[in-house]
Design goal:
The protein is α+β, with helices and mostly antiparallel strands. It has 10 helices and 12 strands. It has a single domain, classed as Jelly Rolls, CATH 2.60.120.330. It has an 8-stranded mixed β-sheet with strand order 1-2-10-7-12-5-4-3. The chain has a 4-stranded antiparallel β-sheet with strand order 6-11-8-9, with no helix packed on it. α1 crosses α5. It starts with 12 loop residues before the first strand and ends with a helix. Bound molecules: 2-oxoglutaric acid and fe (ii) ion (FE2). The site of fe (ii) ion has 4 residues, from loops. InterPro entries: DIOX_N, IPNS-like_FE2OG_OXY, IPNS-like_sf, Oxoglu/Fe-dep_dioxygenase_dom. It holds the Pfam family DIOX_N. Belongs to the iron/ascorbate-dependent oxidoreductase family.
Length: 338
């Protein structure tokens, strides 16, 4: 427990424990109010009571550090180019272009572990398949899979809180979008930059694509969020996850909840690790505006959207939207899949 109500930059810290227990109606209603305030303001908030243990996080961090310390050749053995259409594996520093420029980070792309017998894998669906694991750090596999399982449970619970905050039944998202969520997970390493360097962006300004992102970060910091009051730091708070609204929730709510631009610059002088889990709609879901009955006027707030209306304009499935986005940040892979 952090014991904090908010970070120095004003991002709220919400105890979400009651979202795991449907009988705690009063507390859940209170959490829903806090979630609503956060989503109406910056679209960013921290959570405690998320069910990911300190031990799970510590193992994830430790094994990830061991992975990034491997030689380039060892990391290249699981390069993304070997992951095929599943879009998994390691990419080097500068290998991803979040806002059209190379990011100052390396990373490991992961997701729901699906075997070759899974119907979607058999049918060759992009972004579905097996993760690539480094043979030199075999412990990384269970550390990642345990963490992802716990964090995905937190994602389901949080979506109940978000549904309640929008005046919907708690299981609204589960019923319509996330019975089989698209879960992508990344392990990022932002190397220490020399103090004199013009510190380029670790990740350029962007919004996330899906419903909700749950991010664990080490103690070094560097994440920045564009709030209505300007850019603020989202500093590390031990034991918390940083959550933010993605484009699909913005789309469903007509901008009532905001998918907020954020970026990373590692100025700590240390090597920083972060672990975003993207909790997103089923690949085949067609994401629709919320029912009017929820009381949210999905048209009213469209103009608040930071980049005009792009997330509201597209047609198709979440998978189509995601592939369009991913092919911009990884042009090489995009050419292979699309
Ligand atoms: O590393 C971080 O703190 C944030 C990463 C991020 O924004 C992303 O992967 O979408
Ligand atoms: Fe992001």
């Amino acid at each position: 427990m952090s014991g904090l109500d908010s970070t120095p930059g004003g991002l709220p810290v919400i105890d979400m424990a009651s979202l795991f227990d449907a009988s705690r109606t009063t507390e859940r209603a209170q959490v829903a109010r806090e979630v609503e305030l956060a989503c109406r303001d910056s679209g960013f908030f921290y959570v405690t009571g998320h069910g990911v243990s300190g031990e799970q996080f510590a193992r994830l961090e430790q094994e990830s550090r061991r992975f990034f310390a491997l030689s380039r050749a060892a990391k290249e053995a699981i390069a993304m180019s070997r992951g095929g259409v599943a879009w998994r594996g390691w990419f080097p520093l500068g290998g991803e272009l979040t806002s059209g420029r190379p990011d100052r980070k390396e990373g490991l792309y992961l997701g729901t572990e699906l075997g070759s017998e899974h119907p979607r894998v058999k049918a060759g669906w992009p972004l579905h398949g097996a993760n690539l694991w480094p043979s030199e750090v075999p412990e990384l596999r269970s550390a990642v899979l345990d963490y992802m399982a716990a964090c995905t449970r937190a994602g389901h619970a949080l979506m109940e809180g978000i549904a309640l905050s929008l005046g919907l039944e708690a299981d609204y998202f589960q019923r319509h979008y996330t019975a089989d969520p698209t879960v992508l997970f990344r392990v990022f390493h932002y190397p220490a930059e020399p103090e004199t360097s013009e510190a380029r962006w670790g990740v350029g300004e962007h919004t996330d694509y899906g419903l909700l992102t749950l991010l664990a970060q080490d103690e070094h910091g560097g994440l920045q969020v564009k709030t209505p009051r300007g850019w603020v730091e989202a500093p590390p708070v031990p034991g918390t996850l940083v959550c933010n609204v993605g484009d699909m929730l913005d789309r469903m709510t007509g901008g009532w909840y905001r998918s907020t631009p954020h970026r990373v610059k590692n100025v700590s002088g240390k090597s920083r690790l972060s672990f975003p889990l993207f909790f997103d709609p089923d690949f085949v879901a067609e994401v629709q505006p919320l029912p009017r009955a929820s009381g949210v006027d999905v048209d009213a707030d469209r103009s608040r959207r930071w980049d005009g209306a792009s997330v509201h304009a597209y047609r198709g499935t979440y998978g189509d939207y995601l592939l369009g986005k991913v092919s911009k940040v990884f042009p090489e892979l995009g050419r292979r899949v699309l």
